[in-house]
Every structure is written in C-alpha cells, then in structure tokens.
Specification:
mainly alpha, 6 helices, elongated
Length: about 110
C-alpha cells in the first residue's frame, strides 16, 4: 500500500505527537517477564540458548532438504511421464538426492 508524500508526512507528525515509545513499558510482573522472554522461541533462531539455536537450524535444514527432494521427485515424475531422458545436471541431482550430505553437495553443485 503506497501513501502519498502528504499522507506520509501527516503520519510522521502524528507519531511524534503521540510518542508511543514513551508509553511502552514492557512486562512488569515476573509472570509477564517470563512469558515475553520466550518471544524469540517461535523459531529458536535468535534464542540466547545455543542448543535451541542449533536445533532450530537443524529443523530448517531438514525442512529445506525435504522441499528440495520433493521438487526433485516432481522432476523425476515429469521425466518418467514424458519418456524423455533427464538433462545430465538433473541426473546428477537425482542420483544423489538420498545421500546424507545431499544438501551440501547441491549447494556446491556447479553447472
């Protein structure tokens, strides 16, 4: 949604009048502080606990891996249905897609 320069200026002035940053005080109670301390754990990527960060990255890597394998499986099916031979680059991907280090190989793959 694009705003005109006049609308942007009006909104900017309004923010300076209201000053919402002065009214925000954060959690006051111990319970509230405990709750907001978990805000970064939606993904865990920004957690202060290294183990949680590592597990979150592992989840993302595994999820990425499954997406890549799903795309490769779709391509395999497309080639089977068309009775065509896959391009040599695709064939390399198909051959290695169930290796444990497939993602690393794919990342380093050169055309």
């Amino acid at each position: 949604m694009a705003f005109s320069p006049e609308e942007l200026e009006r909104r900017r002035q309004r923010i300076y009048e209201v000053k919402p940053w002065e009214k925000s005080s954060g959690a006051k109670t111990l319970r509230g502080k405990m709750i907001v301390s978990q805000n970064a754990l939606k993904t865990g990527l920004y957690s202060s606990f290294e183990l949680i960060r590592l597990l979150a990255r592992l989840d993302i890597e595994n999820e990425t891996m499954e997406r890549i394998r799903a795309i490769a499986r779709e391509q395999i099916e497309a080639y089977k249905n068309s009775n065509a031979e896959p391009h040599p680059h695709w064939q390399k991907i198909f051959d290695g897609m169930y290796d444990d280090d497939f993602l690393k190989k794919l990342h380093n793959f050169k055309l």
